[in-house]
Design a protein that fits this description.
The structure holds 2 protein chains of 2 kinds. By secondary structure, chain A is mainly beta. Helix content of chain A is 11%, strand content 40%. Chain A contains 2 helices and 5 strands, in the order βααββββ. Chain B has helices spanning 30-40, 50-55, 65-80, and strands at 5-6, 23-25, 85-92, 102-104, 110-113, 116-123. The chains are: A mainly beta, B alpha+beta. Chains A and B meet through helix 1 and strand 2 of A and helix 1, helix 3 and strand 3 of B.
């Protein structure tokens, strides 16, 4: 099989557009129900569960890869405060790093994506760091 | 809605060295995976379509790693309250079986401070580990 071209480290630093996401009560409730999260504030849709920013889907121009070859290696969220229904968050994602490692499965490419969410006054609310492993 | 099976809530005073209680979740069903796909926007068919999963060498659909992480998010909210979660960090083990009973015990560095809770975990859900009691 042909190997797809591996990601160029030239992509490091590349950013998505700034996207406004509104945290909707119904979306929180739907997420909590899917997880069967019993946290009362999440069931009511008042406060978003800690992994809720996974619903904020973003793309970075020029960053494409074969989904079938990707493993989700790690994920981290950090919060200044929890996300609440009605929040309007300006989010941006950037390629924080790309590096290659030799492992038991052969050469793997590690892609680190960092998302930051700001409130309407520009204060940071959360960050999300995704480690994707491309085989 | 059938909720998770919660053990007794933890004592309000958790100290370094405290053994944390388990959060037990019901077995993951295909319906739950379909709901999670819709709620999260992760429509990768290896999580919802057996044929697609088999075409990439899996025995069948596998759960979203992020669903397991969401269970840990619920766990932190349960331990500390949803206002207090400041950090949640996991590493994923690949190929989680879909139907195993899950039991999460936090065996990790855990810091409780005035700012809140800081949790870090290697996510090992799906290995069938259960606690006593």
């Amino acid at each position: 099989m042909d190997q797809p071209p591996s990601l160029s480290s030239d992509l490091i630093g590349r950013e998505s557009e700034m996207v406004l996401f509104e945290v909707e009560r119904g979306a929180i409730r739907k997420f909590a129900e899917a997880v069967q999260d019993q946290t009362p504030a999440c069931v009511r849709g008042d406060i978003a569960p800690p992994t809720f920013p996974t619903t904020f889907r973003m793309t970075i121009p020029g960053l494409t890869f074969d989904l079938a070859r990707v493993l989700h290696g790690a994920q981290e969220y950090r919060y200044q405060r929890p996300l609440r229904a009605g929040d309007r968050l300006r989010c941006q994602m950037r390629v924080a790093n790309i590096y290659r490692r030799h492992g038991s499965l052969g050469e793997m490419t590690f892609l680190i994506l960092a998302m930051e969410g700001l409130d309407e006054s520009g204060s940071p609310v959360f960050t999300a760091t995704t480690t994707a492993i491309l085989r | 809605m059938i909720g998770p099976v919660l053990a007794t809530r933890p004592d309000s005073d958790l100290d370094s060295g405290s053994v944390l209680p388990d959060l037990r979740k019901l077995p993951i069903t295909k319906l739950q995976l379909v709901k999670y796909a819709g709620a999260s926007g992760d429509y990768n068919l290896i999580h919802t379509d057996d044929e697609t999963a088999r075409s990439v060498g899996l025995e069948g659909v596998i759960a979203h790693g992020m669903l397991s992480m969401a269970f840990l998010g619920e766990y932190l909210c349960w331990l500390a309250g949803p206002e207090s979660v400041r950090r949640l960090s996991v590493r994923f083990n690949p190929d989680l079986p879909r139907t195993r009973q899950r039991s999460h015990r936090e065996r990790r560095r855990k810091e409780t401070s005035a700012r809140g809770v800081d949790g870090e975990s290697a996510c090992r859900a799906g290995h069938g580990r259960r606690s006593g009691g």
